[in-house]
C-alpha cells in the first residue's frame, strides 16, 4: 500500500497522505534500519521485507520528501535492507536462491519462491540503475540466472510460484500469479534502461510482457481486462491474492517509463482494466467501494484492502505519461536509447504455462505482502 501512496503523490502532487505514508514506512525500519522488526520474527519473509523495500526504493527514485533529519534517510534504508538479503543467498541447496522464509522456525523455510527471488532481483536492478554500483548489477544478473536455471522462469518467460529445496529444486510448483511475472518484468525493464537498450534485457522485457498476457481476457467479452487466473473465477482468492493485481499493474505502468517501446502494448492492456476497475468501484454504503472482478463491469460484493489497492494502482497509472521517469543518482549518466517501433498488445494465452503443479513440488501458497497488508488494515478507514 505504501508504495502505491508514494506513487499517488508522484502522479498527482497531492500531499494528503504523505504524513501517514512516511509514518508507516518509518514505523517498520527496526533497530538496525533494515526493516527487520523483532516483533515480526515469526511472520516476516524475504518477500515481505522486499515489499517494504519497493516502497522505499520508489521514495528514493521519485524524490519523495525525506524523513526527518533525526531518522535514517531513504537510500540508507534500502541499502541496509538489501545488505541483509545478500547473506541469505543460500548455496547449501539448489546452487543458490533466497528462501521464502527468513527464520527456520517458520513454515515454508524450505521453499524458494519467485516473489522472494524476484524481489531481490528487482531491488538489485533498481539500486544498480540508481547508484551505478556494479555489485548491484552482478547480483541482479545472478538472481535472474538462478531463477531461470531452476525453471521458475521458462523459455516462454512464464514465471512459476516456487520450488522445494529439500529435493534440491528438481521440481517446480507451476502455479502462476500476477505479481510474479510483474516483479521480474519491471526489474528486466530497469536493466534494459540501465544498459542503454541492450538486446538481452530487451528480449527479456518483451518476453515477460508477452507472458503477462496470460492474466488478461478471462472471457471473450472481457478482452484485455486483468484477472487473477488461479483463483478469481472460482472465488478462492485469499486476502493476499486480492492485492496481487495491484503489483502487476504498478510494475507494468512503471515499465513504460524505463522501456518506452512497451507503452502502447501496456496501455492496450491496462486501459480496459482500469475502466473495468472503475466500474467495479461502485459498491458499499459510499458507492465507491471496489470489488474484485473487474470484468463484470459492476461491484461484486467482494471487497477489502487488496481490492482497493488493486483498483488504485491500475487507475492512477493512467497518469504515468505526465510524470518523469525514475531518477538516478549523480554517478549515473544514461544514454537515451534509439527509438523502437512499439510492440503489439500481447495476445492472452499465447504463452500460457502448464496448468498443473510440478510433480514433487511443495504445495505452499505464496504469501507475498502479507506483513504489509496486515499493517495496512489499520489505515483503511483513514484512507477510504
Q: Structural class, from secondary structure content? A: mainly alpha
What distance separates the N and C termini? Answer: 13 Å
Low-confidence stretches: 354-384
In what order do the strands lie side by side in the largest sheet? 1-2-3
Strand content: under 5%
**Run of helices and strands:** HHHHEHHEEHHHHHHH
Average pLDDT over all residues: 90
Q: How would you sum up the major sheet?
A: 3 strands, antiparallel
Q: Tell me, briefly, the overall form.
A: globular
Number of helices: 13
Q: How many DSSP-defined strands?
A: 3
Share of helix, binned:
40-55%
The radius of gyration over CA amounts to: 19 Å
Describe this structure as you would to a colleague:
Strand 2 (162-164) and strand 3 form a beta hairpin. By secondary structure, the chain is mostly helical. It is globular and about 50 Å long. It has 13 helices and three strands; from the N terminus they run H-H-H-H-E-H-H-E-E-H-H-H-H-H-H-H. It has helices at residues 2-12, 18-27, 46-61, 74-85, 114-131, 134-149, 178-194, 199-212, 244-258, 263-280, 305-316, 370-376, 380-383; strands at residues 111-113, 162-164, 172-173. It has a three-stranded antiparallel beta sheet with strand order 1-2-3. It starts with a helix and ends with a helix. Helix 9 (244-258) runs parallel beside helix 11. The longest helix has 18 residues, at 114-131.
Amino acid at each position: 500500500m505504501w508504495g502505491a501512496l508514494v506513487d499517488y503523490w508522484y502522479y498527482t502532487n497531492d500531499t494528503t497522505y504523505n504524513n501517514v505514508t512516511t509514518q508507516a514506512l518509518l514505523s517498520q525500519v527496526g533497530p538496525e534500519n533494515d526493516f527487520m522488526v523483532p516483533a515480526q520474527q515469526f511472520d516476516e519473509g524475504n518477500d515481505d521485507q522486499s515489499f517494504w523495500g519497493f516502497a522505499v526504493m520508489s521514495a528514493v527514485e521519485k524524490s519523495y520528501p525525506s524523513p526527518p533529519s533525526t531518522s535514517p534517510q531513504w537510500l540508507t534504508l534500502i541499502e541496509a535492507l538489501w545488505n541483509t538479503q545478500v547473506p541469505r543467498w543460500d548455496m547449501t541447496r539448489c546452487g543458490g536462491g533466497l528462501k521464502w522464509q527468513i527464520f527456520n522456525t517458520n513454515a515454508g523455510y524450505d521453499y524458494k519462491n519467485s516473489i522472494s527471488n524476484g524481489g531481490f532481483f528487482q531491488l538489485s536492478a533498481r539500486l544498480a540503475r540508481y547508484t551505478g554500483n556494479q555489485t548491484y548489477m552482478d547480483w541482479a544478473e545472478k538472481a535472474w540466472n538462478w531463477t531461470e536455471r531452476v525453471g521458475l522462469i521458462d523459455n516462454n518467460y512464464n514465471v512459476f510460484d516456487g520450488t522445494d529445496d529439500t529435493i534440491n529444486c528438481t521440481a517446480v510448483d507451476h502455479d502462476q500469479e500476477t505479481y510474479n511475472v510483474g516483479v521480474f518484468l519491471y526489474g528486466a525493464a530497469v536493466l534494459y534502461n540501465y544498459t542503454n537498450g541492450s538486446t538481452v534485457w530487451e528480449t527479456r522485457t518483451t518476453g515477460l510482457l508477452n507472458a503477462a498476457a496470460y492474466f488478461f481476457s478471462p472471457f471473450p467479452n472481457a478482452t484485455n481486462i486483468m484477472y487473477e487466473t488461479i483463483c478469481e473465477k472460482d472465488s478462492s482468492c485469499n486476502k493476499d491474492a486480492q492485492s496481487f493485481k495491484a503489483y502487476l499493474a504498478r510494475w507494468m505502468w512503471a515499465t513504460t517509463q524505463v522501456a518506452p517501446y512497451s507503452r502502447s502494448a501496456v496501455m492496450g492492456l491496462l486501459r480496459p482494466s482500469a475502466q473495468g476497475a472503475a466500474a467495479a468501484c461502485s459498491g458499499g454504503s459510499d458507492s465507491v467501494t471496489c470489488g474484485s472482478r473487474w470484468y463484470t463491469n459492476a461491484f461484486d460484493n467482494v471487497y477489502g484492502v487488496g481490492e482497493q489497492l488493486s483498483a488504485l494502482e491500475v487507475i492512477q497509472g493512467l497518469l504515468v505519461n505526465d510524470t518523469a521517469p525514475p531518477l538516478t543518482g549523480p554517478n549515473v549518466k544514461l544514454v537515451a536509447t534509439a527509438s523502437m517501433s512499439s510492440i503489439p498488445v500481447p495476445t492472452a494465452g499465447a504463452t500460457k504455462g502448464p496448468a498443473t503443479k510440478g510433480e514433487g513440488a511443495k504445495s505452499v501458497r505464496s504469501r507475498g505482502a502479507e506483513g504489509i497488508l496486515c499493517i495496512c488494515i489499520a489505515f483503511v478507514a483513514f484512507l477510504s
